[in-house]
Amino acid sequence: MGSGFDGPWRQSGSLLCCLPSNPCGVLQFIGGSYLSTAPQLSYRRFLESWCARDWAVLAWSYIPGFDHQAQADEAFTAFERGLRLHGHLLGIPIWRMGHSLGCKLHLLAPDGGEGCAGALLLSFNNFSAERSVPMLADLAPRLGVASEFSPSPNETLRLVSVHYRQPRNLLVRFQRDTLDQSGRLLGVLRNRLQDHSELLVLPGDHLTPASAGLRQSILGAWADAGRADTIDRLVTQLWARL
Fold it and tell me: Which Pfam families does the UniProt entry name for this protein (predicted)?
């Protein structure tokens, strides 16, 4: 077990696993940029609230890069390996859940979303590299590095329209989220045959699912009380839609 782990969390390769004794389902979680390296901390309250409802959580830890397709493939392989390692999880419903960039990585999974019962996509973000990294436009030519994500934002939506085959998707947009692009994604999904995607609009901002556990570990439980209630309500609303 690596440093920084406590409570129910266990590490299995690049996965952080929270496993209740009798899980009713599995959540394969991918977080957003800058939060994704330690999801057991940056999304602690959110993910442990799912575990308290008897959902096993497999959260992928990664450092964001420019080749999003390669990272989507890597995440898919890690989740498949995790399911084989924890054999008692086989045969129960699997949902994929992403936050921000994590939504994009799930949408680019090599199985086209067919290996799960549905997807929860929170605060979908599909900005260009220059929008996400403002200095990149000036630095990239001089450094000889990639200046756009692969696939690009437009290509991502095209790939979703052609290759993504999961009909059950719950998109979540928070009212004060200025980074959310769920509306555009919803249009692409609904143009597919037999699509059942929905959009749920909730109070909050882009970081509503995150940060509570991190603040608690640094400042103590008093700093987390209000945020904890917000996150517990969020999980209850999502859980009721599965």
Answer: DUF1350
Q: What string of DSSP letters covers the chain? A: --TT--TTEEEETTEEEE--SS-SEEEEEE--TTTSS-HHHHTHHHHHHHHHTTEEEEEE-----SBHHHHHHHHHHHHHHHHHHSGGGTTS-EEEEEETHHHHHHHT-TTTTTTSSEEEEES-----HHHHSTTHHHHHHHHT---S-BS-HHHHHHHHHHH-----EEEEEETT-TT--HHHHHHHHHTSTT---EEEEESS-TTTTSSHHHHHHHH-GGGTHHHHHHHHHHHHHHHTT-
Residue 3 lies in a domain: no
- The number of distinct structural domains making up the chain is 1
Range of the domain at 228: 8-235
Full pLDDT tens readout for the chain, 242 residues: 333 334 589 999 999 999 999 999 999 999 998 899 999 999 999 999 999 999 999 999 999 988 999 999 999 999 999 999 999 999 999 999 999 999 999 999 999 999 999 999 999 999 887 776 544 455 555 656 556 889 999 999 999 999 999 999 999 999 999 999 999 999 999 999 999 999 999 999 999 999 655 555 544 555 555 677 889 999 999 999 99
Residue 1 lies in a domain: no
- Domain with residue 94: its CATH number is 3.40.50.1820
